[in-house]
Amino acid sequence: MLGPHRYGKAETRLVRVHRDGDTHGLVDLNVSIALAGDLTATHLTGDNSAVLPTDTMKNTVYAFAKRHGVGEPEEFALLLARHFVRTQGQLDSARVSIESFAWDRLGPHSFQRRGDHTRTTVVTVTRAATQVVSGLTGLVLMNTTASEFHGFVKDRYTTLPETTDRILATAVDAKWRHLSDEADWGKSFQGAVDAMTTAFVNTYSLSLQQTLMSMGTLVLAKRPELAEIRLALPNRHHYLVDLSAFDLANENEVFIAGDRPYGLIEGTVTRDDAPPATAEWYQ
Ligand SMILES: O=c1[nH]c(=O)c2[nH]c(=O)[nH]c2[nH]1
């Protein structure tokens, strides 16, 4: 029996220049499309009469970029997802995922790629509902103190010393689900990022789990348009170097930046009265 299936074009790279006289604007996206619906025939017999080619999906991205321009990534994702569901009767749903790479302006037509994090969105349009998820990956944060970790379980394999002063560092991956398919997407994104960083800075941390909860809670408090936020926080361990062989005391000043393994702290914070998600959003 054929199980769940979907198909689409992954990672269409689009750069759209908006020309306004001498001053140009720049949008740099990675667009992935996944369609689902009555696609049994192609799987069972190779009958492609319901299959919109993935090549066409790629072309649609570029044609829409020219015809409609590209504003906020959520807006462009909604436009594309709605188009596929509206024009292809055999489909039940369209999911459009976009990574958005930011460029800072250096001049009227000159830009420098910002390397600090990537903005993301996943829009799912079904015949019954629309769900907009926004987020980011790779927002790297560090507190050089105001972090403790102690009182944990100790069994025969536990060697970790308790600490009342450590580095807390992470690279935030976060997704948040909007209550509606209309919002000021740019303002909402920036507000969520500001809330996350503010909570990271202001939380005196007894565990990264506690910091995660603070970050999620502040985002929901500051952004009424959001129902739920999911955070994945790798714990970028920093190990104190033993300098005693050189007769040097190390008073939390010299660290080895650990690579692997890392702790992975994940959690979702949900508004009490949040309606359920209308499409899968955990993947
Ligand atoms: O904030 C932390 N949470 C943990 O669950 C954990 N486990 C660990 O070894 N170090 C840490 N730090």
TrEMBL record:
Q: Which Pfam families match?
A: Uricase
Q: Which reaction does it catalyse?
A: urate + O2 + H2O = 5-hydroxyisourate + H2O2
Name the keywords, alphabetized.
Oxidoreductase, Purine metabolism
Q: What class of enzyme is it?
A: oxidoreductase
- The enzyme's E.C. designation: 1.7.3.3
Q: Which SUPFAM superfamilies match?
A: Tetrahydrobiopterin biosynthesis enzymes-like
Q: Point out the coiled-coil segments of this chain.
A: none
The answer to whether the entry has keyword Oxidoreductase is yes
Q: In which pathway does it act?
A: Purine metabolism; urate degradation; (S)-allantoin from urate: step 1/3
Q: Which PANTHER family match?
A: URICASE
Its biological purpose: Catalyzes the oxidation of uric acid to 5-hydroxyisourate, which is further processed to form (S)-allantoin.
Q: Which family does it belong to?
A: Belongs to the uricase family.
Give the protein's recorded name.
Uricase
Which organism is this protein's natural source? Actinoplanes oblitus
- What taxonomic ancestry is recorded? Bacteria, Bacillati, Actinomycetota, Actinomycetes, Micromonosporales
